[in-house]
């Protein structure tokens, strides 16, 4: 029996679900009617992850695809990496790294243990994937990683959401400084930022990353630059130059075309936005109810 058929048998009846003990949010797994073998993880009415059990290299969400491009340019396909993922969701990117770079060592930090249990039961990980799950608050766990990881992480992904919003304490310069200590000299952080009209939150995050990392690039839909819609901005940072010469062409060719903003254009984008600190940090803005919400 194929994996997609087994997955359909697991995920269809009544949509497997769980009430998350820590947040009280409701999480459920739905079949993707347009992509056999694929599933959506929906938390508090918001689609948080898309998982293709047949093809873990299939990255359906636009922001996840952008991070995938960054990973592919950071290290050649087939070369194992050390990766830390803050925010687990459906474990889409850990699956992608395991498939494209076998032998990679990965750690995932997820606050909601019930969510991990649901995902691992209904959308099991490949048996040969070296993925360790750590339970707890992303910032607290980030500060307590074993010394052997410090300075040795190739990829740090910050994709932390509580429902549809990023908590304030994982948006500050102090938080990103903690992340920087984990990274190898040419390691890279990838951050998923959600924002809407005016992009004030995204500008603050870009200013904050630029205060911590010598090299920063962001990727977003050009319609967001015109303040016409809510969406995701992917931000990359490193102490070393980012190997992104091909990135503009890659993201321009995606189903939802986007552009890379860096250098002088990035400084113009930031436009004097203040660096976010623990004292000034706020949650990311909520999306409009019609943006991401899926009815039960």
Question: How would you describe this structure in keywords?
Answer:
alpha/beta, globular, 10 helices, disordered N terminus, disordered C terminus, 296 residues
Break the fold down into its secondary structure elements and pairings:
Blueprint: H1 3-11, E1 17-19, E2 26-31, E3 38-43, E4 46-52, H2 62-74, E5 82-86, H3 92-100, E6 105-110, H4 113-122, E7 131-135, H5 138-142, E8 153-158, H6 173-182, E9 183-195, H7 200-212, E10 215-220, H8 222-225, E11 231-238, H9 247-252, E12 259-262, H10 263-270
Parallel strand pairs: 5-6, 5-8, 6-7, 8-9
Antiparallel strand pairs: 1-2, 2-3, 3-4, 9-11, 10-11, 10-12
User: Pairing-aware structural class of the strands and helices?
Assistant: alpha/beta
Q: Beta fraction of the residues? A: 25-35%
Share of residues in helices: 25-40%
Regions with little confidence, pLDDT below 50 for 5+ residues: 1-12, 290-296
* Count of DSSP strands: 12
- C-alpha end-to-end distance: 30 Å
Instruction: Give the strand order of the largest sheet, numbering strands 1, 2, ... along the chain.
Output: 7-6-5-8-9-11-10-12
